[in-house]
Design a protein that fits this description.
single chain; 231 residues; alpha+beta; six-stranded antiparallel β-sheet; 4 helices; 15% strand
């Protein structure tokens, strides 16, 4: 009887030990999915930054300020945004022009839910081409102050938005830093004028080459005459 009790006690003891040994593994297995979920949450993609919803233009014109909302005038809003959006991350491309060469200033502010996010000063009538200035103090944080050549479309973009500027049809669609730093007249892009200019240049080139060739022939003739006289 005593032997049976000892045997039963041994079996129970072994079962308890095995249960204790397996318990941590079970806990670890149960914890694994939770750990994976936590890691997955940490690797979740960050939220996309909010998109601009409007562009505000301020300057010396009737009313002094106007706003173009993306929801109301999407095409015009996109056009205005393209004039200044590249200025946020671009390295300055020029030095400050003389004050009397800048012309009227128009401050363009990019809005996100009616709150200012970026602000720039545009000078569409600056001598030598449109200019843009990025102030160091920005609504969304400090930037490096700098001057840029603006897009050649700047004047028309502001005009069609309601700013009283003289009509100046687009002649070149600028990329980032699209301004080339000089005025481009419409007639310079006229294909007929371009062909005439090329022909005139070719005519001058042929005349110049002919004059050089004639000079060389006369020189050779003179040398041959002198040699013949001496012989």
């Amino acid at each position: 009887m005593i032997a049976r009790l000892l045997s039963a006690t041994g079996v129970l003891a072994v079962g308890a030990v095995l249960s204790a040994g397996l318990a941590p593994a079970g806990v670890a297995q149960a914890a694994t999915p939770a750990g994976l979920v936590t890691a997955g949450s940490a690797l979740a993609a960050p939220k996309a930054p909010p998109k601009p919803t409007g562009v505000q233009i301020a300057g010396k014109f009737p009313g002094g300020k106007l706003t173009v909302q993306a929801a109301e005038r999407p095409e015009l809003f996109k056009r205005l945004l393209n004039e200044v959006s590249w200025l946020a991350t671009t390295t300055p491309t020029t030095s400050k022009p003389a004050a009397d060469k800048l012309g009227p200033k128009f401050t363009v502010t990019v809005l996100i839910k009616d709150k200012a996010n970026q602000t720039y000063d545009l000078y569409p009538n600056a001598a030598g081409g449109p200019r843009a200035y990025r102030p160091a103090k920005q609504p969304a944080g400090k930037k490096t102050a700098g001057w840029f050549y603006g897009r050649l479309t700047m004047s028309e973009s502001l005009r069609v938005s309601g700013v009283p500027l003289k009509e100046k049809p687009d002649v070149v669609t600028g990329g980032i830093g699209g301004g080339i730093g000089e005025d481009v007249a419409a007639e310079e892009l006229d294909p007929v004028e371009g062909v005439n200019s090329v022909l005139a240049d070719m005519r001058r080139l042929f005349l110049l080459n002919g004059a050089v060739l004639l000079t060389i022939l006369l020189g050779l003739g003179g040398i041959a005459f002198l040699i013949r006289r001496r012989v």
